Amino acid sequence: MKLFIKKKAFGDKIIFSDAVFDFPEGERTAILGPSGSGKTTLLRIAAGLDNDFSGCIENAPDYPIVLFQEDRLSERISVLSNLLAVTKDRAKAMEILERLSLSGEERSCIRELSGGMKRRVAIARVLLLDSDFLFLDEPFRGLDDDMRSSVAMLVSEYAASKTLVLVTHDEEDLRLLGIGNEIRLG
């Protein structure tokens, strides 16, 4: 996928001007830069969620999967119900909960979970979906080092043959996910 952005602005603030970004198919690309440099904006354009720019996208994904910075879970229902909202495969949902060290939490209400547990449920939802394009915005936020490594290994396994685009502030995430392509902003 290739993005040609002639102009992207928020009011008078120009974010991108005459910029070209390449996300090679089947490869992993990280978008890095300081806060406010346009990382999430670039991810949203690439995922087809922001069309308010002049330019075009070549080979845009038909069905992108996005993990947002916010967990975007339904707080009033259980962990398992949040997963079954995206899949009918209960066995697969239970397996992913186990792999994310959430066994025994399937009946817990989301609002009762810690921030790190909520993040793992959000990651589980993404991993239950199927697409060739995976967009992750600060996926390991709120996870301790051991859990971060474990979750990264699972995400890496899931994304083995997919195009993965990662927004991060932490260069360790590149190592954890085996990312070789970088786009540095700001």
Tell me the layout of helices and strands.
Blueprint: E1 2-10, E2 13-22, E3 28-32, H1 39-46, E4 54-58, E5 65-67, H2 79-84, H3 90-99, H4 115-128, E6 133-137, H5 145-158, E7 163-168, H6 172-177, E8 181-184
Helix pairs in contact: 3-4
How far the N terminus sits from the C terminus, by CA atoms, comes to 22 Å
Shape: elongated
Number of strands: 8
Q: Mean of the pLDDT scores? A: 96
Low-confidence stretches: none
Q: Strand count, sense and closure of the main sheet? A: 5 strands, parallel
Strand content: 25-35%
How many distinct helices? 6
Structural class: alpha/beta
N-to-C series of helices and strands? EEEHEEHHHEHEHE
Helix percentage range: 25-40%
- The main sheet orders its strands as 5-6-7-3-8
3D architecture notes:
This protein is α/β, with parallel strands linked by helices and 186 residues long. Helices cover 31% and strands 25% of the residues. It is built from 6 helices and 8 strands; from the N terminus they run βββαββαααβαβαβ. The strands form 2 sheets. Strands 5-6-7-3-8 form a 5-stranded parallel β-sheet, sandwiched between helices. It has a 3-stranded antiparallel β-sheet with strand order 2-1-4, with helices on one face. The longest helix is centred in the middle third of the chain and has 14 residues, at 115-128. The chain is elongated and about 50 Å long. The two termini are 22 Å apart.
